Amino acid sequence: MEARDPLSAHPYALERLTDDEWEELTFLLAWGEDRRVERLRAPDGGLDTVLPRPLKTSEAERGWQGKHYPGAKIHWDKCIESLDRAVRLWKVSHLTFTFPRDLSRDERVAFSEKLEGRHEGVTVDVWSGSTVRARLSADQAGERAARRFFGQSDPIEVDRAGDARRRRAVSWRACGGSRVCR
């Protein structure tokens, strides 16, 4: 089996983003859902991106909290702190956590136990790495965000570009390095 070009194997290297870039990407994907969202700076009250409740700008209809934990450990205490703060300060009714990687079975269970049922009447869900990658290709807003951070809008196109580079390299080697041979 031929080795894959690193660019085509992981066209959206979410783990390479900085914390600030992750929060901006979260905002752009939320903005793709609803143009009324706003990105916040610290201190943010537990939400990186907020959809203010109409006529009650101190309350949130929905919020997003980017947690850029690309490594092996999710800091559940920080997730709980953000959720509690968002409920207390924003009276948020729906909070979405975003992670640059997919959760394992144990992490998904921990997410459910620690966050989903923590506050009655508050919906808590997650956009994992696969969900974020899918959103980057799902619509024009996602494609714009993909171009902003990764230079490509579609992983299939990135893969095709990698295949073309590999074909040219094989052809060049087969011709003994000559540009004339095709």
Structure description:
- The protein is of the alpha/beta class.
- It contains 7 helices and 5 strands, in the order H-H-E-E-E-H-E-H-E-H-H-H.
- It folds into 2 domains: 13-151, Rossmann fold (3-Layer(aba) Sandwich); 154-182.
- Helices cover 48% and strands 15% of the residues.
- It has a 5-stranded mixed sheet with strand order 1-2-3-4-5.
- Helix 2 (19-33) runs antiparallel to helix 6, helix 3 (76-90) packs parallel to helix 4 and helix 5 (129-138) crosses helix 6.
- The two termini are 24 Å apart.
Short description:
The chain is an alpha/beta fold. Helix content is 48%, strand content 15%.
Strand order of the largest sheet: 1-2-3-4-5
Estimate the global geometry from the Cα principal axes. globular
What does the radius of gyration come to? 20 Å
- State the oligomer: single chain
* The CATH topology of the largest domain: Rossmann fold
Helix content: 40-55%
Map the helices and strands.
Blueprint: H1 6-9, H2 19-33, E1 38-39, E2 49-53, E3 56-66, H3 76-90, E4 94-98, H4 105-116, E5 123-127, H5 129-138, H6 140-150, H7 155-174
Parallel strand pairs: 3-4, 4-5
Antiparallel strand pairs: 1-2, 2-3
